[in-house]
Design a protein that fits this description.
Layout lengths: L13 H8 L23 H8 L12 E3 L6 E14 L8 E11 L10 E5 L3 E8 L9 E2 L12 H4 L7 E8 L4 E6 L4 H4 L5 E7 L8 E10 L1 H7 L15 E4 L16 E3 L4 E8 L5 E5 L5 E5 L2 E2 L10 E4 L4 E7 L6 E6 L16 E6 L6 H10 L4
Amino acid sequence: MSKRVGAPGSGISRRDFVKASGLGGTLALAGCTAPGDPQESVDTSTETSASQTGGDLPSTSPPEIVNVDEQGGEVTLSSVPAQHHAHPGESMGGPVELPQVWAFKADDGDPSVPGPILRTTEGEDMEVTLDNTNGMRPHTVHFHAVSKKWEDDGVPTTTGVRVDPGEKHTYTIPADVPGTHLYHCHYQTPRHLDMGMYGIFRVDPKGYEPADKEYFLSFKEWDSRLNRQMAGMDATYDPRNRRPDTFTVNGKSAPRTLHPEDGSPIIVEQGDTVRLHMLNAGYMDHPMHIHNHRFQVTHKDGGEIPEVARHEQDVCSIPPAGRRTVEFTADADPGIYLMHCHKVNHVMNGSAYPGGMLTGVVYKEAMQTDIFKQLMEYAGYEG
């Protein structure tokens, strides 16, 4: 099967992307000399030193979707120290890097930030094994929304269950609340969550009917002092005085968010029904705005909103740990339209604008344009 491109979900195949854009192999040097406004540059001394101190840590990959049903209801999660390149290029205030994260990986998959998207079906139980045999510090896993047994809640101070280095522990997680949920480490949460130990947990209701295009998006702001401190750099993090300086969509900062394979563009075709499952894994509220499309919020924190209570809107505010599912029809003039946090200082890389917590709704019909090719250069797409 051809590799799919776009945000995690039901994007188009890489073959169709290359055919639609004509960019296969045409941008071999993209990202090295991508243009940018010299008046909007950012001091990259921190990012440069971060990349020089990465050592032998692996780099993260984009989050994968793990269909737990197809694995007999079982999945193993482990945490891997890694380097995270939120935007590795030099355009638009880059590079933006987190020199150390604690990335979740599922089974034998690649480590990612956010962690793998765990997908199951209503009525199924998941056996989630947290494998900390090669770990360096204690961890747990807490799953939001679902009704589980007390000892499976993932909070060490109230359950007495903590997974220390060298140990494994299996949680039984019932899929009894359909919707889009959050999972994360609940040991020393202010640090472990900010080191990247979070992901989306999706429970499809029985008889679920997917949209034409369906994507998963997680948003997060970071105080990179913590990541630099954990990498042994000269930085001191204070969780009581948090100062976010990195803003991401599925772990990437714009323009890397628009990269078809490493980022999360929302790729659509004219007339598609589009469904976005969104999570805020940060500590701040993020009002997400989609240009030129009116949508309805259909689900909130796993609860379905009755049709009579829905309305058309173009900004959806998501609180910390909040989840929203929105639906719209791709009925605009085929083009490229931004989706971004409307706290506009979150749409920056340092002092460079635009950047940060921004991606785009990209119509397949617009991929042959010069502006799309330029955006791919900014994003560092090499074809």
